Amino acid sequence: MSFNVYLTFDGKCREAFDFYRSVFGGEFSAFMTFGDGPPDMGVPDAEKGRIMHVSLPIGSGVLMGSDSCSAFGPPPVTGTNLEIALIGESREHCDEVFASLSEGGSATFPMQETFWGAYFGKWTDKFGIRWMINYSAPDKS
What's the CA gap between 102 and 31, in Å, rounded? Predict the structure, then answer.
């Protein structure tokens, strides 16, 4: 299993990741705004340009991030605006990790298939640490 750091911003994600890219180099391996998501997500028009997900490979890891969206909760608080992002080995592995680490905590996004083609879940553990796990089946082409 591998893990990455996931940062959340209140409208400054694009600026922050342009800065990080200028420092570390490389290119974004993923870049999606809330406007790129399905229309039934309930994102206010004024927030559709905010970043829903960006990934910047750095060495053997990936720095990932997004902006907050009022449709999904309050803006992040600086200092608590990061999560540990796990890369699952299989759907079953994701279910096991989710069940174990969320015990005594709270699930914020139960494990489920997503519109971006991954099996994904988010939770806060009993110590207040925020986690997410993502599994994308290998491309069979």
Answer: 28
